[in-house]
Structures
1.
Amino acid sequence: MKIYLASDHAGLELKDKVKKYLTDLGHTIEDLGPERFDPEDDYPDLIRPAAEAVARDSESRGIIFGGSGQGEAMVANRIAGVRAIVFYGGNWVAFTENVIRLSRDHNDSNVLSIGARFVDFEHARPAIDLWLKTPFSKEERHVRRVRKIDNDIK
């Protein structure tokens, strides 16, 4: 699977660990930056290109990283065709078994935003694995709802 990665300075270290992990699993990774730590970078400038790439390539996914993951998801969700969710830890069982799985099964989420100030690699890895392996159910009601999201709820 092709996966686009991007982060701001707060997510750079986790992005680089996830990049190696996903590459070792055989995924095709396109790292859209940053390449080095810059505490003055602005996450919208770094996240938007990854979200746009996912929107253009419906077979791909994106994983974006920031301090909380919230601002990054907001940027990504401004791009038509992107359905980003946020992962920042918490009650692991409830989150992975419900929110992450349902975000794929019901909402066909295509971008995962990770709050790197709250999630380390050991907790991010199983969440990413579950998110990548969970298919969209393609049930008519979910397809209809995703179309409404992508068409600005008409």
2.
Amino acid sequence: MVKRLLKIFNIMGLIFLGLIVVFVTNGSVEYIYVQNNIQEFKERAEFDFTIEAINTTYYKVYPKYEYEDNTRSVLTFEENLEYIGSAGDIILTNRNPATNIPVLTLIISYFAKYFYVGHSTVNAIDPRLTYEVVGNDEISNEVRKVLNDWLYSDYDTRHIIGLRVKNINNDLAKDVENYCDDKIGYPYNYTFAFNRNNSYYCTDLISRAYHSANVGINYDYLGTTGNDLILSDNTYMIFYREVVIKDGQNHFNIYYLKEDTNV
């Protein structure tokens, strides 16, 4: 009986190890395609302007493909806020979310960098607000509606990507908002694979919100990563911010899909 149980455990262990190998290999390959997408977006850019006071240079990217909708705002300047995207747009990063947990930092930093699982949010109908769920907050690790302040709260984040769902409209964005509103207060899913009816992780919340509106944005149909959102056939890049070192200081390069002001 004991030998039989050990054999079962060994088989389960091998299956689990195999799944990890598949997941890591798949994510690493996806990362190459993600980098290609970023490079292609940047190569289409033209210099726009520089604001020396905030060490930021802006580059405009004109639409190249029919599905690129530039009638919706990508980068909005208001008196006290500069925010990314319009209703339903997705923002994500590959920053390490476990910098305050030393024992996990090295492991999580790998997955964050190569799988784009640092953090992600989806904009509300009012794009000054966005939905998120985090697992490393000392106060509230649950689905919540917060200020879209990525460009102010993430000075040290080296890469931020903005995505837009193809054929997005306000009705679809409203369906996504309704789903997220219904999930406010639901806890963070630390298991990622289990208890999915009652908890979420950040990319999972976004993927399932769009799935509820009959739009699939999980590229490989496995656990949803940032890579999956970027590589989905139903999304495209509208924004990219990178941090480069210039004269010994962080300098921000922002690439954004140029809005059609004639619409």
